[in-house]
Specification:
alpha/beta; binds guanine; 4-stranded parallel beta sheet; 2 domains; 420 residues; binds fe (iii) ion
Length: 420
C-alpha cells in the first residue's frame, strides 16, 4: 500500500519531521519508506492520493477508564476520593449488568475511533463478563489495546468489592481466555491483557502479591495509579507503615515490572520514588486534564523528561472530560507553562514535544508504534484541514488542528496498515 500526502510526525521530541507531497510505502502493516517519488516497482495506480491532506500518526492514550465514559464531565468540584465514592463507584457497579456494559462500551469505543485514538491502555471494572465484552468489542473495532479487569478487595463499597480469591481467579480466567483466543490467530494480537490493581488503598497485600505473581507467570504488563492526590498519599502511608513510600508498596508486592508498567499521575513522587521509576523503567501516564479537574496538582513533567523517565499521555476519562487526545496535548502544554511560572528552571513543552508524548512516547509501550520511521507499525490519521490558508507550514497546520481543529477533519484512520 502506498499513500501520498503531507507526511508529518515526531521521530524525536525536538522537532517535527515533515515530508510535503510524499509517498509512504506500507508493507505488512509496517512503514517501509518515505520518498519524494513513487517507490521503484510501483505506478500511480498503486497510490492512494490524499492530495493536500496531512498524514499523521494516530494518538496513543496510555491511561483511560472505559466504564467512566458516561460520568466524564461530572462532579469536578470534588477531589479524588469523594469523586470516586460519589460518582465513579456507583457508575462502575452498573457494569455487572452485561447489557448496560455492552451499550456503554460500544459508545466508548465509537468515540475513541472518532477522535483518532489508535491505541489505548484501558482499565475496565471488577466484572469479568463485562471485561470480556470490552475485549470482544476492541477486537472487532480494529484498534490496539491493553485491557485489564480492575481488582478491588478492600476499602471499597459493598456494591463494588471482590473477595480476594475470586479477584485472583477471575483475573487468571480472563488472561487464559484472551491468551487462548490470541494463540489461535497467526498474527501478533492487537488486544492484550494488562494486570490492573485499582490502586494501593483498594487492594490487600495478599491480592497485590498474587497479581504480581500472575503478571510474572504470564509475562504481562501492569497498570495502576500512583501519587495522584495528597489525601490519597496520606491514606496509603497509614495503610503501609512497613514501607517508605506509595511506590515502594508496589515494589514490595511485585507490581513494578521492568519496562512493562504504567503508573498514572505521579504528581507528588518523592526522590526515592523517582529512583524506583528509573530503576524499573516505569512509564508515567501524564493526565494533566484530570489533574486540573480534580484539583490534584501539576506533575513536574519537564523534570521527569530531564531525568529520562518515559512518559505517555492519558485522558484518564472520566476524571478527564474528553477522549480527544488533541485536548490532552493542549492540557499537557498548559500544565507545563503554569508549572514554569513558579519553577523557571523547568521550561514549558513545545508543540512537537507534546505531540511526541501523545504518539511515539506512549506508543513505545506497544512496541514500534507512534512514528513513521522504517519498521514502525502504520497507525495513521488522514486529516483534511480544508479551510487552511496556504500561508501555513505543515507544522503550523498540525498545531492548528490540535488547538482549534475538529475530529471531523479526520477522514481516514489506520491501525497496523488496516483502515477501520
Ligand atoms: N485512583 C483510583 N481509581 C481512580 C480512578 O478511577 N480515577 C482516577 N483519576 N484516579 C483513581
Ligand atoms: Fe485513572
Amino acid at each position: 500500500m502506498i499513500l501520498k500526502g503531507n507526511i508529518i510526525f515526531t521521530s524525536t521530541p525536538e522537532k517535527f519531521d515533515t515530508y510535503p507531497n510524499s509517498y509512504i510505502l506500507v508493507i505488512d502493516g509496517k512503514v517501509k519508506s518515505i520518498t519524494k517519488e513513487i517507490p521503484k516497482g510501483y505506478t500511480e495506480e498503486d497510490v492512494k492520493d490524499f492530495g493536500d491532506a496531512l498524514i499523521i500518526p494516530g494518538f496513543v492514550d496510555v491511561h483511560v477508564h472505559g466504564p467512566q465514559f458516561y460520568n466524564s464531565g461530572i462532579g469536578y468540584s470534588k477531589e479524588l476520593i469523594p469523586w470516586l465514592n460519589e460518582y465513579t463507584f456507583p457508575l462502575e457497579s452498573k457494569f455487572k449488568d452485561i447489557d448496560f456494559a455492552k451499550k456503554a462500551y460500544e459508545e466508548f469505543i465509537n468515540e475513541l475511533c472518532k477522535v483518532g485514538t489508535t491505541r489505548a491502555c484501558v482499565m475496565a471494572t471488577i466484572h469479568k463478563d463485562a471485561t470480556n465484552i470490552l475485549i470482544d468489542l476492541f477486537e472487532k473495532s480494529g484498534l490496539g489495546a491493553y485491557i485489564g479487569k480492575v481488582n478491588m478487595d478492600r476499602n471499597s463499597p459493598d456494591y463494588l468489592i471482590e473477595n480476594t480469591k475470586d479477584s485472583i481467579k477471575d483475573t487468571e480466567d480472563l488472561i487464559l481466555e484472551l491468551e487462548a483466543k490470541n494463540n489461535k490467530e497467526q498474527l501478533k494480537p492487537l488486544v492484550n491483557y494488562i494486570v490492573s490493581p485499582r490502586f494501593v488503598p483498594s487492594t490487600t497485600a495478599e491480592l497485590m502479591k498474587n497479581l504480581g505473581n500472575l503478571s510474572e507467570k504470564y509475562n504481562l504488563p501492569i497498570q495502576s495509579h500512583l501519587d495522584e492526590n495528597r489525601d490519597e498519599i496520606a491514606w496509603v502511608e497509614s495503610l503501609h507503615p512497613e514501607v517508605n513510600s506509595f511506590c515502594e508498596v508496589y515494589e514490595h508486592y511485585g507490581l513494578l515490572r521492568n519496562n512493562q508498567t504504567i503508573m498514572a499521575h505521579c504528581i507528588y513522587n518523592k526522590p526515592e520514588e523517582i529512583e524506583l521509576l528509573k530503576k524499573y523503567n516505569i512509564m508515567v501516564a501524564h493526565c494533566a486534564q484530570s489533574n486540573f479537574n480534580l484539583s490534584s496538582g501539576i506533575m513536574p513533567l519537564r523534570y521527569y523528561l530531564n531525568e529520562n523517565i518515559s512518559v505517555g499521555i492519558g485522558s484518564d476519562v472520566g476524571a478527564g472530560h474528553t477522549l480527544d487526545m488533541r485536548k490532552h496535548i493542549i492540557s499537557t502544554i498548559t500544565a507545563s507553562k503554569m508549572y514554569w511560572v513558579d519553577n523557571p528552571k523547568y521550561l514549558p513543552l513545545s508543540i512537537s514535544e507534546a505531540y511526541y508524548l501523545a504518539t511515539k512516547g506512549g506508543g513505545s509501550f506497544f512496541g514500534k508504534v507512534g512514528s513513521f520511521e522504517t519498521d514502525y507499525e502504520f497507525d495513521a490519521l488522514i486529516v483534511k484541514d480544508e479551510s487552511t490558508p496556504e500561508m501555513f507550514s505543515l507544522e503550523e497546520r498540525l498545531e492548528r488542528f490540535i488547538y482549534r481543529g475538529d475530529s471531523k477533519w479526520i477522514k481516514h484512520r489506520y491501525v497496523r496498515g488496516n483502515e477501520y
